[in-house]
Design goal:
With about 120 residues, the chain is α+β, with helices and mostly antiparallel strands. The protein contains five helices and three strands; from the N terminus they run H-H-E-H-H-E-E-H.
C-alpha cells in the first residue's frame, strides 16, 4: 500500500478581461455599470479585507469559518460576502454546514486589464 497523497491542482482558466483598458476607448454603459458595482463593493474596508483573505488563501478558496475574524459579527460577514458574490467578484459553494468562497474566474485579470494603460 502506498502512502502517496493525491493532490488536486486548481484549474487555471484563461478569461478575457471584461472591458478594454480605459486608455484605449470609452467604456460602454453596460461595462461601466458592471465595473462600478465591483469597485463600489470593494470600496468598503471590510469587504476589501474579506476579498483579500479569499484571494490570498493558500488553497485558492476559503471557508467562511477561516476568514470571518474581521471585527464584525458573523451575520455582517455573510452580508458582505453576499455583496461580493452578487457583483461577480466571488463564487461560493456550500459543503455541509460551511460555505467556501473563491475568486470568480478572471475577475482580477479583468479589473487589472481595465486599469492597465496600453
Amino acid at each position: 500500500m502506498s502512502n502517496l497523497k493525491t493532490v488536486e491542482l486548481p484549474v487555471i482558466e484563461e478569461v478575457a478581461p471584461c472591458c478594454p483598458p480605459l486608455t484605449s476607448s470609452a467604456l460602454s454603459e453596460e461595462d461601466s455599470v458592471r465595473m462600478a458595482a465591483m469597485f463600489k463593493a470593494l470600496g468598503d474596508p471590510v469587504r476589501l479585507r474579506l476579498f483579500s483573505r479569499v484571494a490570498s488563501h493558500p488553497d485558492g478558496e476559503a471557508c467562511v469559518c477561516d476568514i470571518s475574524d474581521v471585527g464584525v459579527s458573523q451575520p455582517t460577514v455573510s452580508h458582505h460576502l453576499k455583496k461580493l458574490r452578487d457583483v461577480g467578484l466571488l463564487e461560493s459553494e456550500r459543503r455541509g454546514t460551511w460555505v467556501y468562497y473563491r475568486l470568480a474566474p478572471g475577475v482580477l485579470a479583468g479589473m487589472a486589464g481595465l486599469l492597465t494603460a496600453r
